[in-house]
Specification:
This protein is an all-alpha fold and 492 residues long. It contains 24 helices and no strands.
Amino acid sequence: MALAFNGDLESLMDRARAGDPAAATQLAEHLRHGIGMDRDTQESLQWLLRAAEAEYAPAQYQLALVYRDGDGVAHDQLQHLDWLTRAAASGQHASAMVLIGDCYRLGRGVARDHAKAVQWYRLAAEKGHARARYLLARAYALGRGILRDRSLAVEWYRRSARNGYAPAQFRLGLAYLRGHGCERDPMQAVIWFDRAARHGHAGSQFRLAKALLTGVGIQKQPSEAAQWLRCAAERGHLEAQYNLGYLYAYGVGVEKSDVEAIGWYRKAARRSHADSQYALGSFYLNGLGVERDQAKAFLWLSRAAANGSVRAAYRLGRLYAAGAYSEKPMMHEARYWLEVAARGGHPRAPYRLGVVCARGMAGAKDFVAAYTWFYVAAAITGDERALKLAEAVGGLLTAEELEAAKDLARRTWQEIGAKARRVAAGKPGDEEARTTEDLEDVIELPASQEPSPVRVEDGDTSVHDDPQPLWVQDIDIGAILNESAEGRRPLM
């Protein structure tokens, strides 16, 4: 940012020529940005060098930025770090200290060293620099370069937040929301989210919207929640874009509109947001807000599945089994996607996969695999039908095969059980492992507020959910085990 202009330009130039480093620095800024004169980066650089060589810290700092940005000179990280170090040597230039910390933290012009980064952040933080206080808090929160201490993280978040630094206000809100380093206090969390949201912080706008939708820490206000979601969505927050689409799809806090819903889903889908890609594919599949288009549905569902959406993988498995993309069912493809969904924790995929394996729909009958998937299905859903099928399939195995099947089932459950619980709870990822503001998590409406499905088509309840097992209805165990799948429509 250009420095403030004191006096007329002629006077400024006279003072710079007389050797005033502050005037030289200010003149360099005018030349660099073309303020009151033609832009001339080379002459700007000469004035900055003159002031910097006079050990004027603000000029040294500005010169460091020039080399960092490559503005009129070749990008030079070593020169950037050298001039920052000279600026910081005065002991007064906190911003230079912070950027030196950044160099060590990110390994720019120097070997990465989190401990040294913390030292520089602490120096600047103790001088009241808001961003330094935030970065020191992050170091304590993550245990990078210093022993992890959530209570000290909260203390430094608080100091930065009181300086009005929105990212710190956001992180302080999260600490109160989760009880990390402080007593859990959702009301305090909302206060800090609100402050940061009003500074334009998209992650806080999303969190505030979530609180207003769920009534955690504040009274439910769906319409205001939708407004904050829109603010965050317009700033490019992926989860906000997805959830705003969700609100329009169900008419929560806004007038229901499939067209608006698909518009917001598309924005996030184009940035590889898996849930949005799944929703967009489902809209094309069912003709909601757009003309029905199987090809586009397949495209977006495939992209969603490739990006880790177990719902999309499950849907693809069902569509292949139903012969949606060919004259007859494509059971090898169906089995592949059902297994992807099952191993990703989809609660309903294991049962269908067990049916495929038991009936030999994608090759030879595989009772060991069938036993495994029926066992997993029963463990996930508590479905007695799945347990009976596992027992029936187990009866067709030798004692040795049954032991192998039980061992495989146990190992498979250990592998995917936690995933299945997260998917069932609407949390496909590990929230603790998330470090970016764009992945803080999705809005989960409480049961009393969850909208009822708005479409029922081809046995599919909605684009967002697939809640009840269709496959336990009138499926004969004997048919699964004994009948040939050849020439028959799969019982999927």
